[in-house]
Amino acid sequence: MDWDDAYANAAHIAGAEAYPPRWAEEAAAYREETGAEIDLPYGEGLRHRFDVMRPKGIAKGLFVFVHGGYWLRFDKSSWSHFARAAVAQGWAVVMPSYDLAPSVRISEITKQIGQAVCRAAEVFEGPIILSGHSAGGHLVARMICEGVLPVNVAHRITRVVPISPVSDLRPLMKTAMNADLKLDAAECGSESPVFGTPHAHVDVTVWVGAEERPVFLDQARWLAEAWGCDLFVAGGKHHFDVIDALADPESDFARMVLG
């Protein structure tokens, strides 16, 4: 099996090269439209910052979205418009950046997202919903594994929606990107959500596009089976447009997750 091709998303999506610049443009426009608060610190590093998009009136609670990019690329600035559905439903939205491999390992990124969630929880009261895409799906799944977050924060998390998550890291050791990820068997064991125990009180729905690469359909199914949670397969969606639902207040995501 060609593991590099198996985990290559852009190569199998028509017009893939147009997505990142479009995301960045739409995100910038949404930040301006909503008067987003940008670059609020959650840690000491240059990338340890998050942006906040607030609803009108008192927020229902906190929605945290963690971006993907195989822990290797992107930052918070490309995704702001994907807060639209949550903000429209009355949630305050936080989107963090984090350090990228190869400067840090995935286990360190997990700690950084935990730090971001804890800092956001200090700012906003009420229940917490977490969602993330691809590598971000992995990271939000890790947040509800026992021992990752402080108990007082973990108990506020009511729902987690990993979108197209990488839930078992072991196959990535067979890819060329592992030269930067530096995964080994020990880290795959400790950082793969499929081997973690989620907090029992959290409602989890794994979300994946029906037109995604077979390995991502596998990864989603593995997590749903390991955790005994719901799996939602979005018809006609691939790895890049499966997150469009987060920008649509009338979407299934808004109705099922945020309502």
What is the element layout, followed by pairings?
Blueprint lengths: L2 H4 L12 H16 L2 E5 L7 E5 L8 E5 L17 H5 L3 E5 L9 H18 L4 E6 L1 H9 L7 H4 L2 E7 L14 H4 L3 H7 L11 E7 L4 H14 L2 E5 L17 H7 L1
Parallel strand pairs: 3-4, 3-5, 5-6, 6-7, 7-8
Antiparallel strand pairs: 1-2, 2-4
What attributes characterize this protein structure?
17% strand; eight-stranded mixed sheet; single chain; 34% helix; alpha/beta; 259 residues
Describe the protein.
It contains ten helices and eight strands. With 259 residues, the protein is α/β, with parallel strands linked by helices. It has an eight-stranded mixed sheet. Strand 7, helix 9 and strand 8 (230-234) form a beta-alpha-beta unit. Helix 4 (106-123) packs across helix 5 (135-143).
